[in-house]
Specification:
Low-confidence stretches: 1-34
Strand content: 25-35%
CATH class of the largest domain: Alpha Beta
Radius of gyration: 21 Å
Shape: globular
Number of domains: 2
Bound molecules: S-adenosylmethionine
Mean pLDDT: 89
CATH architecture of the largest domain: 3-Layer(aba) Sandwich
Structural class: alpha/beta
Distance between the termini: 56 Å
Number of helices: 7
């Protein structure tokens, strides 16, 4: 342990220097947190602002259509990693009896306000329980990758299978680890009250192993003062071949292009796809 003390001293000096740089040289820029998932906890109030460009209606209608084609005509529904509940709102409006689960209570608190009719539970999607078997289970916005490693992903697939009725449908979107471009970032800005927000997000995969990350950068500028958050979410990395192999013992698996306006079979090269899995 003693051998570590010179490094600790160095670290302290570095932190002092960083403190002076931030507070004396650049006083308008507040310290950036390197957090794991501030977006789903402290910053959950800004989540919907970050997603303002997402067409949740089109996504929900598209999955409803796939459920009508492949499913058992039933309308009991669970959304995994439901966040603030935007899809659940649309599914309820389409006549579903919807429920949601998420691992972060601040997200569920917002979902409950948006969808007072729905039941929300604080659960990990890798190992969840339902009271009654369901007709449709969804997982949007690549959230399936939040399963922490291949073993958890397998557990999640087993949990979904046992929570579905016969011919029930599991729909989610996913990204193939081998098609990730580390230099691509989605960026957008939004205004709320007297603050301007800028959000950017991108995948990162080092080229081997079963972990990828989602990097998020959030800046909030109010009256000339900027706060910055950098989140890095560790997620499971999987190729589409591997993912299909995990699903096939439990489901008939159909892949579609990542297009919520049209139903087009996956072209076998796109790096994003909508998986539609029918329980066998
Ligand atoms: C990108 S957001 C998606 C939210 C929502 N589905 C949407 O499309 O806006 C990811 C969500 O996954 C949740 N999450 C992360 N890990 C989870 C886990 N292991 N089980 C359940 N939810 C999880 C987060 O709390 C967050 O609400």
């Amino acid at each position: 342990m003693l051998a570590l003390s010179p490094n600790v001293d160095l670290l302290r000096k570095f932190h002092c220097l960083a403190y002076y740089a931030r507070h004396l040289l650049f006083p308008m820029i507040q310290p950036a947190y390197m957090s794991a998932n501030a977006l789903y906890t402290d910053l959950s109030g800004y989540y919907d602002l970050m997603c303002v460009d997402i067409d949740y209606r089109a996504q929900s209608h598209s999955i409803d259509r796939l459920n009508q084609i492949f499913g058992n005509s039933g309308k009991t529904h669970l959304d995994l990693a439901c966040g603030t509940g935007p899809h659940i709102r649309h599914f309820i409006d389409l006549g579903y009896q919807s429920s949601g689960l998420d691992i972060n209570q601040p997200m569920l608190d917002r979902a409950t306000i948006r969808c007072p009719e729905a039941l929300f539970t604080l659960q990990d999607m890798c190992n969840f329980q339902v009271d009654e078997p369901l007709d449709l289970i969804t997982c949007f916005l690549y959230s399936i990758h939040y399963n922490n490693g291949m073993e958890k992903l397998k557990e999640c697939i087993r949990s979904v299978h046992s929570a579905l009725k016969t011919n029930g449908v599991f729909c989610f979107n996913a990204v193939d680890k081998n098609k990730i471009n580390n230099s691509l970032f989605a960026r957008h800005t939004a205004k709320e009250a007297d603050s301007i927000f800028s959000f950017s997000s991108g995948w990162n995969y080092c080229g081997s192993g079963e972990k990828q990350s989602l990097k998020l950068h959030i800046e909030k500028t109010t009256l000339g003062e900027t706060q910055i958050w950098d989140d890095e979410h560790t997620m499971v990395a999987v190729s589409f071949e591997e993912l299909q192999a995990l699903l096939r013992p439990y489901f008939d698996v159909h892949l579609f292009e990542h297009d919520y306006d049209k139903i087009i079979p996956w072209d076998k090269t796109s790096g994003n796809a909508i998986f539609t899995c029918v329980k066998i």
